[in-house]
Design goal:
The complex is a heterodimer of chains A (120) and B (113).
Chain A: E1 3-7, E2 10-12, E3 18-25, E4 34-39, E5 45-51, E6 58-60, E7 68-73, E8 78-83, E9 92-99, E10 107-110, E11 114-118
Parallel strand pairs in A: 2-11
Antiparallel strand pairs in A: 1-3, 3-8, 4-5, 4-9, 5-6, 7-8, 9-10, 9-11
Chain B: E1 4-7, E2 10-13, E3 19-25, E4 30-31, E5 36-37, E6 39-44, E7 51-55, E8 59-60, E9 68-73, E10 76-81, E11 90-96, E12 103-104, E13 108-112
Parallel strand pairs in B: 2-13
Antiparallel strand pairs in B: 1-3, 3-10, 4-5, 6-7, 6-11, 7-8, 9-10, 11-12, 11-13
């Protein structure tokens, strides 16, 4: 069965960096696009970034451009989100999610999430 | 960016009653390759990640009870729970996956009256 396990969350100060990881199992990771989606405490869902199955194309929301970088290592079945210059408004649970195809914009399975708190 | 406007923000219905959630996209999201709208519905129960219920506006995912159905009319979309059950208490989100940035509606909280 599909499993996505996120890690790397924690408490950091504004301006600091953090790298999230998501280890995938139960499917052929290298064949599917992957996403990061976040949810601020008590708020709705916000899509953050997408990477195609081969890493050739990446997309992200404007609010994280120049600060967050999505990447993947298909040999390790792992998705990453490098987050730099963190702001208080980046505080959220970060979910990784599996796309439905190599470039799939639709997410069909989500991990349990990892909490990132940005506070001084 | 495509704005997804969802209504109501919350609703309460009795067990066995029908519950209806609306979602409107600010522009067309019709995928030309299959002539289907790129609209998904997710269910999120407290403390859990979202779960995909419906894709392409009306295609129920395998294993989703048939009391959940999706419909569409142009840029207006509807999720209907035909007979509300206790386990349906959750927040429901619509999402367009037509173009990046992918965007969600604000969510509808469904409770039992």
């Amino acid at each position: 069965q599909v499993q996505l396990v996120e890690s790397g969350g924690g408490v950091v100060q504004p301006g600091e960096s953090l790298r999230l990881s998501c280890v995938a199992s139960g499917f052929s990771f290298s064949n599917y696009a992957m996403h990061w989606v976040r949810q601020a405490p008590g708020k709705g869902l916000e899509w953050v970034a997408l990477i195609r199955s081969d890493g050739s194309n990446k997309y992200n929301v404007d609010s994280v451009k120049g600060r967050f970088t999505i990447s993947r290592d298909n040999s390790k079945n792992t998705l990453y989100l490098q987050m730099n210059i963190l702001r208080p408004e980046d505080t959220a649970v970060y979910y990784c999610a599996k796309g439905t195809s190599s470039g799939g914009y639709l997410c069909d399975f989500w991990g349990q999430g990892t909490l990132v708190t940005v506070s001084s | 960016d495509i704005v997804m406007t969802q209504s109501p923000d919350s609703l309460a219905a009795s067990l066995g009653e029908r519950a209806t959630i609306n979602c409107k996209s600010s522009q067309g999201i019709l995928y030309s390759a299959n002539n289907k709208n790129s609209l998904a519905w997710f269910q999120q129960k407290p403390g859990q990640p979202p779960k995909l219920l419906i894709s392409w506006a009306s295609t129920r995912r395998s294993g989703v009870p048939d009391r959940f159905s999706g419909s569409e009319s142009g840029t207006d979309f509807t999720l209907t729970i035909s007979s509300l059950q206790a386990e349906d208490v959750a927040v429901y989100y619509c999402q367009q996956y037509y173009s990046t940035p992918l965007t969600f509606g604000g969510g509808t909280k469904v409770e039992i009256k």
